[in-house]
Amino acid sequence: MPVIRVDDDVFEALQKQAIPLVDTPNSVLRRLLGLAGVVREDHREKGARRVLGRSRGGTGRGAYRVPILRALVSLGGRAQCRDVLERVEQRLRNNMTAADRETLPSKQRLRWQENAEWERYFMVKDGLLASGSPRGTWEITEEGRRYLQGHGSS
Q1: Residue 52: pLDDT above 80?
Q2: Alpha helices of the chain — where are they, by DSSP H?
């Protein structure tokens, strides 16, 4: 297997995309490149199998970032999780795959909803959403508004 070297800033960007204690650099790159479902058995790592099982054929977690921010702005900057997810679903409805609409056996909710909630977790870590909001409430920060201005057309 080839070995690649990346700059520190590239590695930090990969870390921001990773699910802690689950992802490997390889699984993050696979997800970002849209290769999550194309893993040869002999290259799988223990943690990668879990990530691939969760995102198999579904929309990548990062695709929810801008729609979440847009939803929050349209809802006045702060809203309940269910209201944000309803707006995100309306926006992404035509782009969702069958895998996105699968019900997860362990949680009895849809795969896309879990992926959107994971993205919310990383958005809080990135400072785009407030960390001190009441449980179930999502709130955009000034940093989130700036991010949306720079990435709103995607």
Answers
A1: no
A2: 8-17, 25-32, 46-55, 65-74, 81-92, 111-125, 142-151
